[in-house]
Amino acid sequence: PVEGSRGYASIIDAGPVLIALTPKSKLTVFEPSATAFKQLASYTVSDSPTHACPVISGNRIFVKDADSVILWTF
Fold first, then answer.
1. What CATH number is given for 10-73 in this structure?
2. Domain spans of the chain, in order of start
3. Interatomic CA distance for residues 2 and 8, integer angstroms
């Protein structure tokens, strides 16, 4: 775990990485490992809380917040 972090997240297996989305709209990309947490990227994806598991399609991530569906591309 990351120092000082608590709570829960929706976690998606995206091949070589895992993607986690918290209800507070924080999307974190990290490498899966049994021994250490290695964060690769972190983004705030909305100004309001997120309400569903993110959907990944190709190079797109769809995120649902209180009012809309947001498209992120990478």
1. 2.40.10.480
2. 10-73
3. 12
